[in-house]
Structure formats: C-alpha cells, structure tokens
Protein: 7,8-dihydroneopterin aldolase
Amino acid sequence: MDIVFIEGLCVDATIGVFDWERKIKQRLSFDLEMAWDIRPAANTDDLQHALDYKAVSDRIVEHVSTTQYELIESLAEELSDLLLKEFKISWLRMKLSKPGAVRAAKNVGLLIERGQRGDR
Ligand SMILES: Nc1nc2c(c(=O)[nH]1)N=C([C@H](O)[C@@H](O)CO)CN2
Structure:
C-alpha cells in the first residue's frame, strides 16, 4: 500500500488539563501517514482519485481550531476517527506533538495507528 503523508502541520489549540491552559492557545503539530493506493490518481492524473493532502490538512485545522479537549489523547482519537470516515482512509498513523508542554523536553506527544493497513 502506498502512503500519502503530511508533516509538521501546526495548529493553535485550546487544550490541556490545567485551568491556565483553557485560557491560552498552544501550538500542536501533526505528522500523518495515510494508506492510499496512488495508482488510480497516477493513471488518470486526476485529483478526484487522489487522497487530497490539502483537504485533509484543512479538515485537521478546522477541527482542532474549533474544538476543546483536556487530553491530547481525546483529540487524537476523535480526529483519527473522523479522518478515516470522511476521507475513506483504511489506515493511518498520526503523531501528535505538543512541543511546549514540558519545559525540559524538546517534544512530547502521541503516536497512534488506526484502521487496517492492508497489503504491505
Ligand atoms: N498523556 C498525557 N499526559 C499529559 C497531558 C495529555 O494530554 N496527555 N496533558 C498534560 C497537560 O495538559 C500538560 O500538557 C501541561 O503541561 C500533562 N500530561
């Protein structure tokens, strides 16, 4: 299976478990790998047959900037679920980074895989 990817998609979000976090925006960053057979798009040279990384990126920005969660786990789960359904993606790997969360760390976050990868 082929992969369509998005790296370093940054969105400012209201997210966190502490009261002060509800009053500010914090930068989140997303790296996504999404299973997709690219041959129909390649054979037709038609975006209709491609997994449109711009449309996926726009959807992520819209969802993250219009919702509020305490845990990044909740956001990751909801977002991966809606991407799988809305874009008919069979499998994805999502790295969700909250780089400002721990002062002593360069980065913290989650790496999740959802769906069925299919043929490898
Ligand atoms: N596994 C998680 N651990 C923590 C989270 C989280 O969302 N998932 N969140 C926090 C705080 O909101 C933190 O980001 C503030 O510094 C702590 N641990």
Summary: The first helix runs from residue 39 to 44.
